[in-house]
Design a protein that fits this description.
Blueprint (H helix, E strand, L loop, with lengths): L1 E4 L6 H12 L3 E7 L5 E6 L20 H11 L3 H4 L11 H11 L2 H20 L9 E5 L18 H11 L5 E5 L2 H5 L11 H6 L4 E3 L6 H7 L2 E4 L3 H8 L3 E4 L13 E3 L5 H12 L7 H14 L1 E2 L11 H20 L4
Parallel strand pairs: 1-2, 4-5, 4-7, 5-6, 7-8, 8-9
Antiparallel strand pairs: 2-3, 3-10
Length: about 350
């Protein structure tokens, strides 16, 4: 029997049901976000392990190489053009903003707003402008809660564990900069994932520094020795800009050629330290041809839900429609027995 999940089950109840079925022998196939924001990848099983990727079904799908090239060119340009829709501030007239505020300001919303202010104050207290003194790597925190961390990241749902592993593996003389996700400070902040003392706990690790929020992400990437995250878009941006990406979510880059991505999930601290030394000494570089080939493999193996060449979805509704179309294509392959 095959259990198909359009996304990774990310409520406790749904995950337990699917995991129980898997334990009893059911074959679990799920779709995950790929490094291309309009493509979903089919993955077998629920765990964050190697050897879980599936080749898409046998129904012919066009290889839109020009779209891949266009997307990479966007990521190599100015950050403003490549900014994801969820990081852009909506443009609203003053009357609409007032109406929206009046509709939202209930007791629960006031508590959430106060919670966000407290988190922002703690962040500003911990952030330092002393960045760039010597070689550094940069870790981009994820917004939480989200499926990329819960449940897909397993142990690293507590991002402190990812940062600690990186800190323990840093070569001598290299610091680790930590960049907070902008949505944590601009949208709803969930205190469960940024508890009291969260930023101080990160700073207690050796050679760590929290960046101020106004630093340009692409400038940080360009000056970094390598870029790390669980599975953020920043990893695709880093590779497009010639930087080594370090991931803690194995399935996202399972189809990429060796030498493009460091899998910190599968590596020990000792192995990571040796790899980071190679990267810092210039022995590990991003090969342009292999990178483009890897993106094309992702596109041909996944499900393309876009109807145009937009590449980066411009709104939440467009992203949802892309996902719905990709899911329908995957369901067809499951029903046809080719996935």
């Amino acid at each position: 029997e095959t259990v198909f999940c359009g996304t990774t089950p990310h409520t406790v109840e749904s995950w337990l049901v699917v995991r129980t079925l898997e334990e009893y022998g059911a074959r679990v196939v799920r779709l995950i976000a790929s490094p291309l924001p309009w493509v979903l990848l089919p993955i077998q099983g629920l765990t964050n392990t190697a050897g879980c990727s599936l080749t898409g079904g046998q129904n012919p799908r066009p290889m839109r190489s020009a779209v891949v090239d266009h997307y990479l060119s966007l990521l190599r340009g100015d950050y403003l053009a490549a900014t994801p829709y969820y990081e852009k501030k909506p443009v609203r007239s003053i009357p609409r903003r007032l109406l929206s505020a009046l509709c939202q300001w209930g007791p629960r919303e006031l508590m959430r707003y106060a919670e966000k202010l407290i988190i922002k104050r703690e962040f500003k207290r911990a952030a330092s402008r002393r960045v760039g003194d010597g070689p550094y790597a940069v870790y981009f925190l994820h917004y939480q809660p989200e499926a990329n961390t819960l449940p897909e990241a397993d142990l690293y749902v507590d991002q402190f564990q990812a940062v600690k592993k990186l800190s323990d593996a840093m070569p001598s003389g290299m610091s680790l900069l930590i960049k907070e996700h902008p949505s944590i400070l601009s949208k709803r902040s969930d205190r469960r994932w940024r508890p009291a003392g969260f930023y101080e706990r990160l700073l207690s690790l050796p050679n760590t520094c929290i960046c101020p929020q106004d630093l340009d992400a692409f400038e940080l990437i360009d000056r970094a020795v390598f870029v790390a995250s669980i599975a953020g878009v920043c990893l695709t941006e880093a590779m497009a800009r010639g930087k080594v990406a370090v991931t803690f979510y194995t399935p996202r880059f399972a189809l990429f050629r060796n030498g493009l991505v460091v899998d910190a999930n599968l590596c020990s601290v000792t192995e990571l330290r040796a790899l980071f030394s190679q990267v810092s000494e210039g022995q590990w570089t991003v090969n342009e041809g292999q990178l483009r080939e890897s993106f094309e493999v992702v596109m041909s193996s996944g499900y393309d839900g876009a109807l145009d060449d937009t590449c980066i979805p411009q709104s939440g509704s467009q992203s949802a429609r892309n996902s719905e179309r990709a899911t329908c294509l995957a369901i067809r392959d499951v029903l046809d027995g080719v996935l």
